[in-house]
Design a protein that fits this description.
By secondary structure, the chain is mostly helical. The protein has six helices and two strands, in the order H-H-H-H-H-H-E-E. Among the domains are: 43 residues, Arc Repressor Mutant, subunit A, CATH 1.10.10; 42 residues. The chain has a two-stranded antiparallel sheet.
């Protein structure tokens, strides 16, 4: 979103308008490099209120999980390896709010909550002892794990 024009520019436009009665609004807009609609609205506001200041930001939508940050933190702390979909279901159960996965992801980022990821597969071990492997090409050209031959 673009920032409002500076108060200095607004005041210069109004002073120019007051001192140049013969200039039209399109000419004033061209002189200062702004749109004609901006000049129209500025002068209308100045005539009505005597102020040329920009209006304050009107706001926007509030976050869906605005009042539920503590609940989200507790759910993540209880199971840090939960997927976003699982977390989404748990939040719906606790708060009765149905939020999208992107909304949930943004909430976690805003709260700086990382999710611990658990590997889907674990390395195979034989009776508690680890077997060292190396990657060797198979006859099909793919790399596969093969036991290392230990000298000794």
């Amino acid at each position: 979103m673009a920032l409002p024009f500076s108060d200095d520019l607004r005041e210069r436009i109004i002073r120019f308008y007051e001192n140049h009665d013969d200039d039209t609004q399109p000419e004033i807009a061209a002189e200062f490099g702004v749109s004609q609609s901006f000049v129209e609205k500025l002068l209308r506001r100045w005539r009505a209120t005597g102020s040329s200041a920009a209006l304050p930001h009107a706001g926007g939508r509030t976050r869906t999980l605005h009042h539920h940050d503590a609940t989200v933190q507790k759910l993540v702390a209880a199971q840090p390896d939960a997927t976003l979909a699982e977390l989404q279901c748990r939040i719906a159960g606790k708060t009765k709010l149905h939020v999208s996965v992107p909304t949930l992801c943004r909430t976690l980022q805003r709260l700086r909550l990382g999710r611990k990821k658990v590997a889907a597969t674990r390395r195979a071990t034989t009776t508690g002892s680890k077997v060292a492997t190396r990657r060797v090409p198979s006859p099909g050209g793919q790399l596969v794990g093969a036991p290392l031959e230990m000298a000794g």
